[in-house]
Every structure is written in structure tokens, then in C-alpha cells.
Specification:
The complex is a heterodimer.
Chain A lengths: L1 E6 L5 E7 L2 E4 L2 E9 L2 E6 L2 E10 L2 E6 L2 E7 L16 E3 L4 E6 L6 E2 L4 E7 L2 E6 L4 E5 L7 E2 L4 E6 L6
Antiparallel strand pairs in A: 1-2, 1-8, 2-3, 3-4, 4-5, 5-6, 6-7, 7-8, 9-16, 10-12, 10-15, 11-14, 12-13, 14-16
Chain B lengths: L1 E2 L9 H26 L3 H9 L5 H8 L7 E3 L17 E8 L2 E8 L10 H17 L3 E5 L9 H4 L7 H13 L3 E5 L2 E3 L4 H4 L3 E5 L4 E3 L3 H8 L5 H5 L1 H8 L4 E3 L2 H14 L23 H4 L10 H5 L7 E5 L7 E8 L2 E8 L5 H16 L4 E7 L6 H5 L2 H14 L4 E10 H6 L9 E4 L4 E3 L3 H18 L6 H19 L1 H6 L12 H12 L15
Parallel strand pairs in B: 4-5, 5-6, 6-8, 7-9, 8-10, 13-14, 14-15, 15-16, 15-17
Antiparallel strand pairs in B: 1-11, 2-3, 3-4, 11-12, 12-13
Helix pairs in contact in B: 4-6, 14-16, 18-19
The chains are: A mainly beta, B alpha/beta.
Chain lengths: 163, 535
């Protein structure tokens, strides 16, 4: 059995699942007959209707009674992907390492996600990004200096929005 | 499962620079493969023609189904040994299709040193037959070898994994019920004579084919008997008098036609059933892989971008996307086959090791084959991590990985250093196949780290005797270590020694994996069971 969540406009979500020749939409069951990979027959408001559907990634294009529409399939796992959980405008070291170089000088304005400095640890280099938009006030470690895990590598202060 | 959203900017300068650099490396790979397959001194080609013999490539074209793929394995074996001109270790090995079924080929290359077996040739034949055993792939032997390369006999004859193993593997295959067909196209002398004798079926070409324990010169030396090769062990004698061979062929095309017809008489295997649907090409162009791999090995890249250019429709269901983020785990399909993918997005920490172990057990329980994409510089080191039990958690990952009974496949797409190689199913861990990308590196540790470690040991040794080293002396210790580590970490060195099954053009990764996964389904999955995890 496969279950999908669809969204045809911003407010409505539909939960559908297919078991054998029956499709359940939000708890209601409808019988379907598969004609080929892309088309099937079902009852819509009491009328036997042929529906064609073609998937393009997460978009599914449907063709019903001469009308075409697109519905978006929602990936239920995407929302649980890692989200940046920085705090207080500082970027902390994910692991011990050494600073390779600064990409931005203190005092500059930066946007959230801008690369601030390059560090190296365990034979791998990685860039440390700005936790938020604002002014870069401090890069506490110079190139060549080592740091421990959790050390603050950069501080960004949100700039006051002009009143 | 939904499509991976790529964040790669294909118009950026960085992408273009990476693309340019990888294109050059890939061109170099194809040049070297072409050289290994086709570049031969004219006198060797003339000699084959005079003998009415075909090249290995021509033989394969006659043997395999027209228009079907041939997945060559270890095509650059021995490229750094024996002066570099024993191309492919004098052997062609690979998976091809006959009558719609996968077979594995072992072919001696008579255009290289008369098809003589060097130590690495023997290693390649054993690996070919190991693949046949592990995946229950029928074997076609195309025999045309001068015999063992005598000056190196001590490296190819006596040990457990030297020449005798070839014949041991043939017997093992037969006991397992895996068909073997030998086509005798040249002389099979001494040990080599056992290849047709231990095969289920054998075809021998009139005139060129010969099978004897001792060739005419040895017979003369041993007993004084003077006899021609044809009378001693030719096609006529063996198919009408001794019964050592089954079918006599008039020439090579005739022999290949007979071999194909024999294979049609063997019973097809029933493949293992796994979750498999219609295949779909990746949504993102695999060629973009060239632009994603940084020119500097030390620079990291998001493995999801690699996965998106290998799997069906670029669809990926990520497992624990927010935990242990330095390893990416999830489900996808390759050639329609459901697989579990583990890919490194940084160093392995405690949480990433535990996540990997848990994910592998899920796949094993559901009979889902595993694909490892290695870009691993190791497990995290340092006091804090040892206190958290990084060694213990790494051990859980390794123990679980070895316990898995589903087929495992590994592609080294970047680094493969230290214990990370173990956890991510390195060569020693019985994956069904292992490939490298052209720019990848493999070693027990990085060259810099090795040089520093050895210099450090030397400095402390001398300090105990009250001596001090100058900067120049330290550099003198470091430099040779650095150079030898760099040379031996190279993918071409690895493939020369057959630590892998070949170097892949990144765009071919999907098809190599697809063919390997489908081939692996010939063999039943093993019994499930795990060792003790240190919890």
C-alpha cells in the first residue's frame, strides 16, 4: 500500500492511499481500474471518468474530462531535514580544528549563509557561514590558530532597521 | 520519496573550473583504457594474424550478444607494474550478456607477452572467479596463455591466493552448480591445462588449440620422446581419443558459435526477488558530476548532489535527515532496484556511526542491497571523542556492516582513509564490487599526517639520546614519506594492485552499479545474524 499527500492549492492537503483497485481519499474509498501506466478509470460524482496522470518530480499533471490541473506531492520527510539552529548570532565550531583563512573582514555587513571563514579538521576543509544577516563584529581566531569544538568562530550582530 | 533539490549552480566559475579539471582526468582515464585495450606493437598483431587468431576484443564481439553492454573489470590492472606494458595484467575480465543472461569472462590476452601469467594476472583471474562464486555467475574461459611467467614463479605459484586458487575456485564453482565453459584458442600448458579439464564444457580450435600437462619441449627434456604439439594435445586427439575436450571448432568464430550454443543449454538461474520497478534515468544530468567534485581533495561537497545524479529520477528518501549529519543515509532506486545508500558528508562522529549502523540493519532486515559512496577521511579523533566512545561506536558500525547478508557495493568518490574505509565497506569487507573515481585517494592516513607522524617518532627517538634535529633534517625525513604516500594513495596505483574492480568515469557509475546489482541477484542472500555490539 502506498500513501501520498497532495496539495492542489496553498490551503488544502489531501491524503490518498491505494490498496489493490481501491483508492482512499481523505477516508473515502473509490474503486479504480488501471488502464495503463498513466491512465485509469474511476467514478467522479457518480460518473465513470477516465483520468490521465503524468508525474514530473513532485508535480503531478492530471487530465480529467478535458480539464488539466497540476497537484503538488508533498514530501512528508522534507520538513524534518536539518535546519540551522544557531543561537545568538555566533557560529560555533562543529569540531576541533585550525583556521585556514578569513573570507570577510570584521566590520563588514553579511547576509545569513554567507561564507565567513575556512577551517580545516581531519584532512577536510569546510566553510563557516554567517548565522544571521547583520554586521560581522568579530572573528576570534586568526589564520593558523587552533580551536576546540564549540568555540565561537564568528559573531554577527543584527543591524538596527532604520526607523 | 521525492526528488532531491540540487543547489549546484552550473553557471558558476567554480563549477566550470571543476568541470574542466575532471574532464581532463576522465579523458586521461579513457586514453589509458584505450591504450590498455588496443595499443600493441605491430609485430604482436602480425603474429596473431599469421596464426589466424583474433584479438580479445574481436573474440568478445563474437561471443556476447550484439549490442549488449560489457562491464570490463580491472582494465588498468598492473599499469604500474612490470614496466607498465603488461596491459590489464595480460587478462580481460568482465561481465557480459549471452542469450540475455549475465556471464563473467576470463580471457587471456595473447597479444601481451603471449598471454603469460604474471603474479597480477593470477590475482585478476582469481578475483574474476571469486566474483563468479559470490554472485553465481556462469564463467566463459577464453584460454590462450603461454603459461606462468617463469622469472616471477615464486610470486605466482605457491601461496594460498596464487595460481592453485584458480583451479580451487573452478572446483568450488562446479560444486555450487555454476556452469563453466572453456574455449581453447591457444596452448594450455601445465597448470593452465586444468582450466578446460575442470570446466563443464570445452571447445578447442583445430590447429591452434592445444592442451597438455607438458608441452613438446618439456616432454623431450623429460623422456626424450619427440612429438608434435598437434599430436600431443591437439583438437583431433582430445575430442576423439582422450575425451579431455568436447567439441572441435574449425576456427575462432566457429568456436564462439559453439560456446554460445552450449551456454543456451544450461539452465537459467532464478534471481533473488527484491523490490524492483521500471527504471527511470536521473532527473539531473550525470555529466554535472564533473563540475561538483572540487579540484582540491580537502574541500568537501554535499553527497546528495552525487546521489541525485546516480539514482532513478533523482528520487531519495532520506533517513534521519537531522541526526548524525556527517553521513547521509536513505533509500533510492538504481535500474529500478531499491537500494539503501550510505554516503559521507564529513568525518564520522559517534552519532553518524550509530545512525549508519541502525540504517544498515533496517536495510538488511528488508533485504535491501547497500550502496556505499565513500568520501571519508576517518572517524573523529581526540580526547573528547574517545571519552564519548568513538572507537566503540565505530566498532558497532563495522560489526553491523560485516553482519549484513544483503549484497554490498562500494564506490570511492573522494577520499578513503583509515578506519573510515573499514566502516564504509572497503575492499576487505566482501562487498560484491568496489570502484574508484579517477581523482580519488586511498591510504591508511593522509600523506601529510603520515610524514608528520614519522618525523615526530624520529625526533623523540633522538631526543632520548639527547640529540636535536634541524629543520632541514626534519624535512629530509618527511619528504620521502610524503612522496611515497602520495604515489601509493593514487587511484591508478590502487587499480594497478587490484584493490578495486576498476576506475570509473563518474557518469558510468550508475550503469556499473545497475549491472552489478542485477548480476548479484543470481546468488541467494546469506543467513541473517550479527556479532556482539559493544553497547
Amino acid at each position: 500500500m502506498t500513501t501520498y499527500t497532495f496539495q492542489s492549492d496553498a490551503r488544502q492537503r489531501y491524503q490518498t492511499s491505494k490498496r489493490g483497485q481501491t483508492v482512499h481519499v481523505d477516508g473515502q474509498s473509490h474503486s479504480v481500474r488501471t488502464l495503463d501506466a498513466n491512465s485509469f478509470m474511476t467514478q467522479v460524482n457518480g460518473c465513470l471518468t477516465r483520468i490521465r496522470g503524468v508525474a514530473d518530480g513532485d508535480n503531478i499533471h492530471l487530465h480529467i474530462n478535458g480539464r488539466a490541473c497540476a497537484v503538488l506531492r508533498i514530501d512528508p520527510t522534507r520538513a524534518s531535514a536539518a535546519s540551522a539552529s544557531e543561537s545568538g548570532g555566533s557560529s560555533a565550531a562543529p569540531m576541533p580544528g585550525v583556521v585556514i583563512n578569513w573570507l570577510v573582514q570584521p566590520g563588514c555587513s553579511v547576509k545569513a549563509g554567507d561564507a565567513l571563514l575556512v577551517i580545516e579538521s581531519m584532512k577536510l576543509q569546510m566553510t563557516i557561514e554567517a548565522p544571521q544577516s547583520g554586521k560581522l563584529v568579530d572573528l576570534p581566531f586568526a589564520a593558523g590558530q587552533t580551536f576546540q569544538r564549540g568555540a565561537v568562530l564568528a559573531r554577527v550582530v543584527a543591524e538596527e532597521v532604520a526607523a | 520519496m521525492s526528488r532531491i533539490v540540487s543547489k549546484v549552480d552550473t553557471s558558476s566559475a567554480q563549477f566550470k573550473a571543476n568541470f574542466e579539471s575532471m574532464s581532463q582526468r576522465v579523458q586521461q582515464l579513457h586514453d589509458r583504457l584505450h591504450q590498455a585495450r588496443f595499443d600493441r606493437p605491430q609485430r604482436d598483431i602480425d603474429r596473431l594474424q599469421k596464426q589466424n587468431k583474433l584479438t580479445v576484443q574481436e573474440r568478445l564481439a563474437l561471443l556476447l550478444d550484439p549490442g549488449t553492454p560489457f562491464l570490463e573489470l580491472s582494465g588498468l590492472a598492473a599499469n604500474k607494474s612490470y614496466g607498465g606494458d603488461v596491459h590489464g595484467a595480460g587478462q580481460v575480465s568482465g561481465i557480459g550478456i549471452i542469450h540475455g543472461r549475465e556471464v563473467i569472462i576470463h580471457a587471456d590476452d595473447p597479444s601481451i607477452k603471449g598471454g603469460a601469467w604474471y603474479p597480477l594476472s593470477v590475482k585478476k583471474i582469481i578475483r574474476t572467479l571469486d566474483i563468479a562464486i559470490e554472485n553465481r555467475l556462469p564463467v566463459i574461459h577464453l584460454c590462450d596463455s603461454a603459461g606462468g611467467f617463469l622469472p616471477l614463479q615464486s610470486d605466482l605459484f605457491p601461496d594460498r591466493y596464487t595460481a592453485g586458487r584458480i583451479f580451487r575456485n573452478q572446483c568450488t564453482l562446479s560444486k555450487m552448480g555454476v556452469p563453466q565453459i572453456a574455449v581453447v584458442l591457444g596452448h594450455c600448458t601445465a597448470g593452465g591445462a586444468y582450466i578446460p579439464a575442470l570446466s563443464d564444457y570445452s571447445v578447442i580450435v583445430r590447429g591452434n588449440g592445444g592442451v597438455f600437462l607438458g608441452g613438446p619441449p618439456l616432454v623431450k627434456a623429460a623422456t626424450g620422446e619427440v612429438v608434435s604439439a598437434e599430436a600431443l594435445g591437439g583438437a583431433e586427439m582430445h575430442t576423439t581419443v582422450s575425451g579431455t575436450c568436447d567439441y572441435a571448432a574449425d576456427d575462432e568464430p566457429h568456436a564462439m558459435a559453439i560456446a554460445r550454443d552450449i551456454f543456451a543449454q544450461t539452465s537459467p538461474v532464478v534471481k533473488q526477488t527484491i523490490d524492483r520497478i521500471e527504471a527511470e534515468p536521473p532527473h539531473y544530468d550525470p555529466k554535472e558530476l564533473y563540475g561538483i567534485i572540487p579540484t582540491d581533495r580537502k574541500v568537501g561537497f554535499d553527497m546528495r548532489e552525487i546521489i541525485a545524479r546516480i539514482v532513478d529520477g533523482s528520487h531519495f528518501h532520506e533517513y534521519q535527515p537531522g541526526y548524525g549529519t556527517t553521513i547521509v543515509c536513505g533509500f533510492a532506486r538504481i535500474w529500478g532496484c531499491k537500494v539503501g545508500i550510505l554516503a559521507n558528508n564529513g568525518v564520522l562522529f559517534n552519532d553518524s556511526s550509530l545512525k549508519a549502523a541502525h540504517f544498515m540493519r533496517l536495510c538488511d532486515r528488508d533485504r535491501t542491497p547497500l550502496v556505499f559512496l565513500q568520501n571519508i577521511t576517518g572517524y573523529m579523533v581526540g580526547r573528547e571523542y574517545e571519552e564519548r566512545g568513538i572507537t566503540k561506536d565505530g566498532a558497532k558500525m563495522i560489526m553491523t556492516q560485516v553482519g549484513c547478508s544483503v549484497p554490498k557495493f562500494t564506490v570511492i568518490v573522494g577520499s578513503s582513509f583509515g578506519a573510515g574505509n573499514y566502516g564504509m565497506c572497503g575492499r576487505a569487507f566482501d562487498g560484491r564490487f568496489l570502484w574508484m573515481w579517477p581523482q580519488s585517494e586511498i591510504a591508511v592516513m593522509g600523506a601529510e599526517q603520515a610524514a608528520n607522524t614519522l618525523a615526530d617518532v624520529k625526533i623523540r627517538q633522538l631526543q632520548r639520546h639527547g640529540e636535536q634535529l634541524t629543520e632541514a633534517q626534519i624535512a629530509e625525513i618527511r619528504q620521502p614519506v610524503l612522496e611515497s604516500f602520495q604515489a601509493e594513495s593514487d587511484a591508478y596505483y590502487s587499480t594497478s594492485e587490484m584493490w578495486d574492480d576498476g576506475i570509473l568515469d563518474p557518469v558510468d557509475t550508475r550503469n556499473a552499479l545497475g549491472m552489478a546489482i542485477v548480476s548479484s541477484l543470481n546468488a541467494p542472500f546469506g543467513e541473517m545474524g550479527y556479532g556482539v555490539l559493544r553497547l
